[in-house]
Design brief:
Oligomer: single chain
Structural class: alpha/beta
Number of strands: 8
CATH superfamily: Aldolase class I
CATH class: Alpha Beta
Helix content: 40-55%
Number of domains: 1
Shape: globular
Largest sheet: 8 strands, parallel, barrel
Radius of gyration: 16 Å
Strand content: 15-25%
Distance between the termini: 14 Å
CATH architecture: Alpha-Beta Barrel
Length: about 210
Amino acid sequence: MTSNGICGLYAVTPDEIDTRALAVKVRAALSGGAKLVQYRNKTAAVAQRFEQAGALLELCRQYGARLIVNDHLDLALKVGADGLHLGAEDGPVADARKKLGAGKIIGVSCYDRLQNALDAQSQGADYVAFGSFFASGIKPEAVRAPLALLREAKQRLAIPIVAIGGITLANAPQLIAAGADSVAVISALFAAPDVELAAQRFTALFDKP
C-alpha cells in the first residue's frame, strides 16, 4: 500500500443524471472493495453536482472510502470532499492546495508526459494519473500512453501512480505489473452486469500472493 492510501481500484463515476441510480452503483463498487471514488460528471448542472457529490460523500463515509471531486474546486470545498483531481486546464496545484488545505488529496492528470508528473510532484500533488493506456469509449480522442511510461515513472516518482483509460479486468494486470499503484475505471466497472462483483475482481488484482 502506498503511504497516502492511493492504491487499488479507483472508481470513477459515469455521467448519470439519476442521483439514486448513481448512488446504487457507487454503493455496489464500495461493497466490492473500492476505497477511492472520483465524482466525475461532465453534463450535470451545478445544483445536481452538489446533490450527487453530497450523496456519494455520505456513502464513502459509510464504507471508509474517500471521495475525490474531478475538476471542480468549488464543489470539493462546498461538500467537504476528501480531495480534488486536476486536469490540464484546471489550474496549478499550489492554488488548489492553498484553498483546500494540507489535509486534502490532490491528484493531477499527466496524460503521457512524465515531466508533467515530476512538476506536479514538486508542487505538492499527492498522486499523478497517466493515460489513456488503451482505447477508451469515454475519451476516444485521448492521447495514448505507453506501458514504458509507468516503468520509468515508478523509478522517478515518490508519489502514487494511477493508470486510466480503457482499463478492463483483462488488461489491468499489465498496468499493475508495470508500476501502477491504482487503476481508475469507469465503464468496465459501472457498466458491468454486476458492479459489486466487478469491483471485487479489480480489487483482487492488487492482492499480493
